[in-house]
Amino acid sequence: MTQDSPGLSPFHLAFPVHDIAAAREFWGGIMGCPEGRSSDDWVDFDFYGHQIVAHQTPGVVARNAHGTNPVDGHDVPVPHFGIVLGLDEWKALAARLTEAGVTFQIEPHVRFEGQPGEQATMFFTDPSGNAIEMKAFSDRTKLFATD
């Protein structure tokens, strides 16, 4: 971050999907991300103020394209991406995903309980198998805390 850009800068992430219509239904409908620019083969979504772009990529899908890493007793899918929400917003999203029938790879729960990095987290995939982690801290100033 530079001194002339206060606050967080939005990130940009492009990722493969097997079907643009399924991506629109999941990212726009279930996740509630407003749609931006698009073409027949890609679509921008506003992911909590950040730009993510689903690119229809025939023959390249994320499904089963990740390994796992043990974290606090769970096999965390790698790679994955997500956002840090406020706790109330995280709980509302977990309820919305559950109601929509989304299958969790790691169910919504609190990890590192009682430790500096205590956080609410959940893992799931989009229809193309891209792994997503959504997390929340009751105290966001502890995002990078080590003690």
One letter per element, helices H and strands E, the order comes to EHEEEEEEHEEE
Please work out how many helical segments DSSP would assign.
2
C-alpha geometry: globular
CATH superfamily label:
2,3-Dihydroxybiphenyl 1,2-Dioxygenase, domain 1
Number of strands: 10
The CATH class is identified as Alpha Beta
The strand line-up of the biggest sheet is 1-4-3-2
Largest sheet: 4 strands, mixed
Radius of gyration: 16 Å
Domain VOC: 9-137
Pfam family, one: Glyoxalase
Protein name: Glyoxalase
Organism: Aurantiacibacter luteus
Short structural description:
It contains two helices and ten strands, in the order E-H-E-E-E-E-E-E-H-E-E-E. The chain is an alpha+beta fold.
Can you give a write-up of this model?
The protein is of the alpha+beta class and 147 residues long. It has a single domain (12-142), classed as Roll (2,3-Dihydroxybiphenyl 1,2-Dioxygenase, domain 1), CATH 3.10.180.10. The protein has two helices and ten strands; from the N terminus they run E-H-E-E-E-E-E-E-H-E-E-E. The strands form three sheets. It has a four-stranded mixed beta sheet with strand order 1-4-3-2, covered by helices on one side. Strands 7-10-9-8 form a four-stranded mixed beta sheet. A two-stranded antiparallel ribbon has the order 5-6. Strand 5 and strand 6 form a beta hairpin. The two termini are 24 Å apart.
